[in-house]
Design brief:
457 residues; alpha+beta; FAD/NAD(P)-binding domain; Alpha-Beta Plaits; Glutaredoxin; 3 domains; five-stranded antiparallel sheet; 25 strands; flavoprotein
Length: 457
């Protein structure tokens, strides 16, 4: 029997596979596609995701391939990221296909098994296992995690509802060549019907995006290069000599959130648990952060005797994060509507972002640096990457998914690192579980809740 089967080999599934293998869990990833699709809906990594990759010693290849951009946006309104409280105060522009390639290489190095062209058709649960029927035979696993996208088969087979709001507009994205491109990048140029963008990620081709509020197209209907040309002409007045598409996709601003993230031994992460309009580039990042929260908890239950109730904290912590992302992307969609009232509202918000506190609040939200999990007062927030007295950094002590005690002396059952400031207990995902002001009794409670028993071996 497999320990964990992950359905879906995108960034969320691959990140989860890496996390589980770092703890010693055997992992099988099932992916229905024969190979990497080459499609790259996402195009960037935010600061918190870079911190996560740094904690596990995985960040350098991503930095080497990406471009550092000091600005982000909220509904096309510029945000200055340069003052973010992190070692990575920028957006790292890197295409999803490159992210997947780097994560897959890391996963394979760790011993993750990846089987392609395998679809899941049936899930049955018992008290001890999940029985899986696939297009390539039957399997059984202690746990199954659906990381298989917004139309998740795992979510449907587990009987988990996916309520939300329907689309109100139509967007088209195409990676194409242009024989007469604009002089420079164009981002969310507003028009009477919506907006359009022409962006460059790599030499030789362009990313063209149109957002149209005149109607809602059928997402399942075939899409052609002529449709993209027509939409671009409608908004920009020209198609810039558009030709030779690499791929074209149609989507909308539907926003949905799984009714629950866990059904027995089946869990959901990433787009299988939440979908929204890709405003601010938060989708891929939220999925990777889901995986980072779930991985060490699932390993603690499987390998180190933690009670299964630890898995309930995954939904308790991550579902409110998704609720907030859905809310802010709905707000961003509303702020792009092509009417005089919305234009007036945009002007007001643009003026407000000139104030440091407003810019900082929106920037930290988009970059996911302000997340605080529902832990006792004084805990729950992310730990900054402290410089330590021995010349190391805190994140260097989180290379494997184990908690760290920062302080003078030590604490039974937890890896201790000398620290001259107030003592604190850091969970494997870099969030603070306890601070000195909470007292010794609260420390023991935090150790019992978050630390696997084998830490004192």
């Amino acid at each position: 029997m497999e320990q964990v089967v992950i359905v879906g080999g995108g960034p969320t599934g691959l990140m989860l596979a890496c996390e589980l293998r770092l703890s010693g869990v055997d992992v099988l990833v099932l992916e229905r596609l024969a190979g990497p699709s080459g499609e790259s809906r996402a195009g960037g990594i935010h600061a918190r995701t870079m911190e996560i990759l740094d904690m596990r010693g995985m960040l350098e290849p991503f930095l080497a391939e990406g471009r550092r951009l000091p600005r982000g946006h909220f509904a096309g309104i510029p945000l200055d990221f340069s003052g973010l409280p992190t070692r990575y105060p920028f957006l790292l522009a890197i295409l999803q296909r490159r992210i997947e390639r780097l994560l897959e290489a890391r996963a394979r190095d760790l011993g993750v098994r990846l089987r392609r062209e395998v679809g899941v058709t049936v899930l049955r649960q018992t008290a001890e296992r999940v029985e899986i029927e696939t297009t390539e035979g039957d399997l059984a696993a202690a746990y199954v995690v659906g990381c298989d996208g917004g139309r998740s088969t795992v979510r449907k087979l587990a009987g988990i509802d996916f309520p939300g709001t329907p689309g109100t507009m139509t967007a088209i994205l195409g990676d194409v060549e242009l024989s007469a491109p604009p002089e420079g990048p164009v981002f969310q140029q507003r028009t009477p019907h919506g907006n359009w963008s022409v962006l460059t990620f790599e030499s030789g081709w362009y990313r063209v995006i149109t957002n149209d509020f005149d109607g809602i197209a059928d997402r399942d209907a075939p899409i052609t290069v002529d449709e993209l040309r027509g939409s671009l002409r409608k908004h920009a007045g020209t198609d810039f000599g558009l030709h030779s598409p690499r791929w074209i996709s149609r989507y909308n601003d539907a926003a949905r959130l799984a009714a629950r993230y866990r059904s027995g031994r089946v869990l959901l992460a990433g787009d299988a648990a939440h979908i929204h309009y890709p405003a601010g580039g938060q989708g891929l990042n939220t999925g990777v952060q889901d995986a980072f929260n779930l991985g060490w908890k699932l390993a603690a239950v499987l390998l180190f005797g933690q009670d299964q109730t630890l898995l309930d904290t995954y939904e308790e912590e991550r579902r409110p994060v998704a609720e907030r992302v859905l809310a802010n992307t709905r707000a961003q969609t509303a702020l792009t509507r092509p009417d005089p009232q919305t234009e007036a509202l945009r002007q007001v918000l643009t003026g407000l972002t000139a104030f440091g506190d407003v810019n900082r609040s929106l920037s930290e939200m988009v970059a996911a640096l302000d997340i605080r999990y529902p832990l006792p007062e004084g805990a729950g927030h992310r730990a900054p990457d402290f410089d330590l007295p021995d010349g190391t950094r805190l994140y260097e002590h989180l290379r494997d998914p184990r908690p760290v005690y920062l302080g003078a002396g030590s604490s039974d059952g937890v890896r201790a690192v000398a620290w001259e400031g107030p003592a604190m207990l850091i969970r494997p995902d870099g969030h603070v579980a306890w601070v000195e002001a909470m007292g010794e009794r609260a420390l023991q409670e935090a150790i019992n809740r978050w630390c696997r028993p084998s830490f004192n071996e």
